[in-house]
Amino acid sequence: GTFPVPPGFSMTCVTRGQPSAAHCVAWHPHDKRGVFAVAGGGARVCVYAAETRTCIAFVWAADPTPARVTCAAFAPDPSLEAFPEAEDTDERGGMMLALGTADGQVRLVRLRMSDEKTKTKTYVARTVAAVTSSEKRFAISVLRFSPDGARLLVAADKELFVHEVVGAAAAAVHDRVETDEVVLDGDISATLSNAGKRVHTVRWLPSRVACRGHRGAIVSADWSTDGLIVRSTCRAREILHFDARSGRQAVGDFRDAEWATWTAPLGFPVMGVFQNGGNGGDEINSVSRRDVFSSSNDGEAIAATETVVAAGDDFG
């Protein structure tokens, strides 16, 4: 609605929020400002900086066609040794954000710093690739970049797909193709509306590996620290492991395996998230586990001294 502003008063936008319920949140793995993206089930994704509590970018899932965003994930920063700055500058290639949609698509969006002179640094977004990951057009439920950013794990219904990502890591962050089309699954008929540039999907997402075996819809997926094994859980309360290179189920003892992230509601390390009398998984909607490492005198990290687990359930 609208209302009149009393004489002598002015209005200032303090922050901007979501137009609907926030269905997914994706944190940037390295940005020291606490950058995170929030999707509310529509076409708009808001990117915030927790340090300043401001919205630094709006991303619209409108190219090549409008779509509802169901999940998101930030790619790791390229070449941290070469670009040790705390923020994602243009020299670093900006920020790479993957969006999963309700119609089974995966879109890569690059965010670069805006040229506008504002108090808060803002970003402009450009879609660089769009591919249909789920041939059956199931909604994308999980997105997860590998620790090196070279592969993207995609979950849709009961299937997992591992996409090779060329350019999201340290590869060709400066390359720009000067045309006015975007390639969607090899079709160049779709036209970008927000920028006059195109990057071939085959150049960014040239291949994929399928991982199958779950009996229920997948709810979580994580990478091992070496990027070789993928662990996933589903609504049938299965925990499966896959070889990320071949897509085959990996059989072995993974009790002592090291994981880059832990978002599974199942497993010994997070068994304490269930309350007494809980259903054993259905009431837990999200889990995030993080190891806190202590440092030696020479600055090298040693074994984890404690672990922090956050969980969200049906009861708020």
Structure description:
By secondary structure, the protein is an all-beta fold. The protein folds into 2 domains: about 25-260, 7 Propeller (Methylamine Dehydrogenase, Chain H), CATH 2.130.10.10; about 265-315, no CATH class. It is built from 1 helix and 17 strands. The protein has one helix spanning about 200-205, and strands at about 25, 35-40, 45-50, 55-60, 70-75, 95-100, 105-115, 125-130, 140-145, 150-155, 160-165, 210, 220-225, 230-235, 240-245, 285-295, 300-315. Mean pLDDT is about 75; it is low at about 80-85 and about 170-200. This is Anaphase-promoting complex subunit 4 WD40 domain-containing protein. It comes from Micromonas pusilla (Picoplanktonic green alga). One of its GO terms (molecular function) is microtubule binding. Keywords: Repeat, WD repeat.
Beta strand %: 35-45%
One letter per element, helices H and strands E, the order comes to EEEEEEEEEEEHEEEEEE
Main sheet record: 4 strands, antiparallel
The structural domain count equals 2
Overall 3D geometry?
globular
Layout: helices, strands, pairs:
Blueprint: E1 24-27, E2 35-39, E3 44-49, E4 54-60, E5 69-74, E6 95-101, E7 105-113, E8 123-132, E9 140-145, E10 151-156, E11 159-164, H1 201-204, E12 208-211, E13 218-223, E14 229-234, E15 239-243, E16 284-295, E17 301-313
